[in-house]
Amino acid sequence: MSTVKKEETKQSVKQVFSNNFYFLKLMFTASPKYVLYQSLDAIRNEVSIFFEHTVGIGYVLAAAEFGYPFEKVARFILILAGAITLGMVFTVFAGDYMAERERPKVREKIKMMLYDKAKAVDLSCYDDPEFYNEQVLAISEVDKQIERVLQFVKNVLGGLTVFISTGIFFLLRDKISVIFVAISFVLSLVFEQIYNKQNYKVKIEGIPFTRKRDYIKRIYYLSDYAKEIRLNPEVSDVLFERFEQANDEVYRIEKKYAYKKWLFGFIKKYLCNDMFSDVIFISYLVYQSAVLHNLSFSTVAILYGSFGRLKRGMRVFSESYPFACETSLYINKIRKFMGYEPKIISEKELEPNKDAKQIELKNVSFAYGKSEQMQIKNLDLKINPGEKIALVGYNGAGKTTLVKLLMRLYDVKEGVIEADGCDIKDYDVKKYRDTIGTVFQDFQIFAGTVKENVILDVSENADEEKVKQALDDSGLIGRIKRFKNGLETDLTTEFSKSGVNLSGGESQKLAISRVFYKDAGLMILDEPSSALDPIAEYQLNHAMLGATKDKTVIFISHRLSTTRIADRIIMLENGSIVEQGSHDELLKMNGKYAQMWKVQAGAYIAV
Question: Domain coordinates of the chain in residue numbers?
Fold first, then answer.
C-alpha cells in the first residue's frame, strides 16, 4: 500500500521560498511582462481598496458625524473616484489584456524545458516507477503551478500592501487592536500549514490509483484498443472492475484524511478567524467607544470594517506561506526532474566514425536497475565492419537488451563494448547514436507527414529523392505514390481528419525506411519483417542486402527464413552465446538453432 513519508512533506522555510523563487525565475525568463504587470496590478488593487474603503468611507462617516462642508466632501469624492477609475483602466490592460497575451508564452517556455529534459533523461529512468511517477507529476502540474506561483506573488504583494497601509492606520487610531489580529495570525499559520499537508498527502498517495483510472479512460478513446474491445467486450468487465478498485482506493485515501481535513479546516476558518473578528474584537470596540469614550463612532465603524482587511494582510503569512509550502512540494518534483543529471555521458567526447564499424564486446554483463538477475552474462562477441549479423533465440534470451547496450541506451554493468577499438563510453553520446540507424519492434508512427516520419526531423530542407529511395528500399513507395499528397500526406488522424492510418505491415516498412534514409554505418533492425507477408519479407531482405552492402548490420528475427541472409548467426540463450556460425554451418551442427529451424520449416520440408 502506498504511503507518504513524513520527510516528503517536511520543508524548511528556505526550501519553500527557494522552490517558489526558482519557478518564478522560470516564469520571468519566459515573459517579464507577465510577472511585472500582474504584480503591479496586485499592489494597485489593494491601494485602491484602502483609499476607497478605509480612507474614503472613513472620511465620509467623519464628515457626517462632525458636519464637514458639502463642497469639501464632494471634491474629495470626485478626486477619489477619478483615481480609482484610472486604476481600473490599468487593471483592464495589465490584468486582462497582458495576462491573456503573455500567459501562453510562459506555459510554452516552461513545458518546452520539461520536454527537453524528458528526452535527455536516461532510458533506465523509465524502468523506475518512482522516477516515472514524479516525471508524470512534474509535467502534468506545470500549468497549475504557474498559476499558483503567480497567485502566491500577488498574495504576498497584495497582503504586504494591506498590512502596511491598514497597519499604519490601526497604529494611528488604536494600537491595541493589532494584538487581536496577531493572535489570529499565529493560530491560522499553524493550522493552515497542517491542513495543506493533508491535501498533499491525499494527492501523493492517490497517484498510483489515479494513474490506473487515467489509463483505463485512455483505452476507451484510443484507436489502438478499439478493435480489441469490440471483438472482446468481456475485457470491459475486467477494466471496469479495475477502474472501480482504483476508485475505491482513491475514496479510501480521501476518507482516511477526511476527519483531519475537516477538523483542521474548521479550526483555521472559524476558531482562528471568525471568532476573533465577530466576537472578541467587536466587544473590545464597543467597550472603547461606549464605556471609555476613547473612539468616535465613525472610527469604530472603520476599525471594525478594516479589521478584516488587516487580518487579510496578516494572512500573507498565515495563508500565503502554507500555500507556498504546498506549491513548493510540487515544484520540488519539477525541480528534481529538471535537475536530473544523465548517467550515460561522454567521458572523452571522441568523434565516432560514421562508416561501417567494428564492434567488440568483452566480458559484458548487464542487469536492469538493481536486479541481480543478469540479462547478459559474460558475453564476448566481435563483429567485423560490413558484416551482417543475425541475433536469434527464444523470448527473453537477451537479444533486444544486447542491441540497447550497443546503442548506449544503457551502460554495461561489467565488461566493455568497443567500436572501432574505442570504448563507446569515450564517444560523444549524441554523435555516437547518430552513427547508428535503428528500428525496434515497438516502433511508433508520429502524427506528421510521411516525409517527417521518414527523416524524423524538420522536413523543409530534406532531400526528397533520398526519402523516396528509402521508401523504395523498404517497399512502401508504391503505396505512397497513390496518396493524393504523396510525401506530404498526413499520417494518423490525430491532427488531420484526412490523415491516413497505415496497416501494420505498411507501418513497419515506413519504420524500416527511416534506417535506409539515415544511411548510418551501423544498422540495427529488431524484428524488421514481423508484420510483413512472405513475399514482402523476401523483397525486403534483398533490398536490405543491396542498400546495406557496405554497412554493418545487426538484426533480430524470430523468422529464421530471414536470418539465412546473414553472414553469421548468433544464437543467445539466457544472455549467453550458445551457438554461432552461418545458416548452413549451424544446421550441420544439429544443435539448438537446427532444432528451431526444423520446427519452423518442418511443414514446408515435409511437403
Answer: 121-338, 359-445+502-606, 446-501
Q: Positive or negative, the Cα torsion across 557, 562, 567, 569?
A: positive
Task: Using DSSP, state whether 356 is helix, strand or coil.
Answer: coil
Longest dimension (CA), the chain: 118
Dist CA 519 CA 551 (whole Å)? 9
| Ranges of the chain whose pLDDT falls below 50 | 1-7, 603-604, 606-607
Q: Look up residue 268 and give its three cell numbers.
A: 483555521
Question: 3-state DSSP call for residue 441?
Answer: coil
Set of cell numbers at residue 114: 520539461
The alpha-carbon radius of gyration of the chain (Å, integer) is 35
pLDDT tens readout for residues 352-366:
877 777 899 999 999
Query: pLDDT tens digits for 45-56?
Result: 888 888 888 888
Taking the C-alpha atoms of 256, 261, 263 and 269 in order, what is their torsion angle to the nearest 10 degrees? -170
Distances (CA, A) of 491 to 416, 458, 503, 505, 507: 41, 15, 11, 15, 10
Q: Please provide the DSSP assignment of 451-512 as one string.
A: HHHHH-S--TT--HHHHHHHHHHHT-HHHHHTSTTGGGPBBSSSS-TT-B---HHHHHHHHH
According to the model, what pLDDT value does residue 603 have? 46
Distance between CA 415 and CA 591 in Å, rounded? 28
pLDDT for res 604:
47
Quick check: pTM over 0.85? no
Q: Tell me: domain 359-445+502-606, CATH 3.30.465.10, correct?
A: no
Nearest partner of 581 among 573, 589, 323, judged by Cα: 589
